[in-house]
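Need residues for this backbone.
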């Protein structure tokens, strides 16, 4: 096992928020940077879900947040206390607060195309929903940002268990008009299940051969997502939507309350 791999696994398995004591000096980081970036590429690739041509979700871990801090501070020769506080505050949003939850970054891709603009406005208006079915639980995603109506292409989400469900493993997302579901690949199911209990699974970079050889073809929804089937809300003001009803469990999206009413590579 290499020095970089031991370091990455140690950082991953810790449950506390990141502090300056967790960091390497810029000189030590430079020595290990190439290996750490290769590990991070693999780490993020296994946790990246493509929801549609315009939306992707990357599940983060304490290791990816740590690497982000190291990369940002690498360019600052003499960071002030304010600089350090801002970087740690932002990157710690990607670190789960307790065992059993997941954190992710939602990216809206595609520049200025109409579908991307639709989703940016939809997320700002709290009209976007996303949830995971994993390990017998429904984990509902919630944006870390406050409801200020800010238009942005990158959002931090936290996923917390809200109900029990059947054995299906899938990602469910959409807006107030339509919901869509796609099964998780064997790899995604494996690594995300481990992420739910990271301290008990420090060997997060080692996947069974049977899982590594299994692939799942990603299919994108073709109806009910964005324009032209839905009308773009005008901005300002952003539209106001009612909160979804609470999940009650069950094996179908409708039964769990998720039914019809989330750069990393």
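Answer:
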């Amino acid at each position: 096992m290499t020095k970089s791999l031991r370091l990455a696994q140690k950082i991953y398995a810790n449950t506390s928020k990141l502090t300056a004591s967790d960091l390497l000096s810029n000189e030590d980081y430079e020595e290990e940077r190439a290996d750490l970036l290769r590990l991070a590429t693999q780490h993020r690739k296994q946790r990246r879900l493509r929801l549609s041509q315009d939306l992707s979700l990357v599940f983060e871990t304490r290791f990816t947040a740590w690497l982000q801090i190291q990369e940002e501070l690498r360019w600052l020769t003499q960071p002030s206390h304010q600089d350090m506080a801002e970087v740690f505050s932002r990157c710690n949003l990607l670190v789960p607060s307790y065992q059993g939850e997941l954190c992710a970054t939602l990216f809206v891709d595609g520049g200025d195309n109409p579908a991307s603009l639709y989703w940016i406005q939809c997320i700002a208006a709290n009209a976007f929903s996303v949830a995971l079915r994993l390990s017998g639980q429904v984990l509902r995603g919630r944006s870390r940002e406050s409801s200020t109506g800010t238009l942005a292409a990158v959002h931090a989400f936290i996923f917390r268990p809200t109900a029990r469900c059947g054995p299906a493993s899938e990602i469910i997302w959409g807006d107030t008009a339509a919901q869509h579901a796609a099964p998780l690949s064997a790899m995604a199911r494996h690594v995300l299940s481990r992420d739910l209990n990271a301290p008990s699974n420090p060997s997060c970079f080692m996947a069974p051969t049977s899982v590594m050889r299994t692939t799942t073809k990603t299919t994108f929804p073709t109806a009910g997502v964005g324009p032209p089937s839905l009308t773009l809300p005008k901005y300002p003001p952003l539209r106001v939507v009612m909160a979804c009803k609470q999940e009650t469990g069950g094996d179908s999206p409708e039964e769990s309350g998720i039914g019809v009413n989330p750069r990393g590579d």
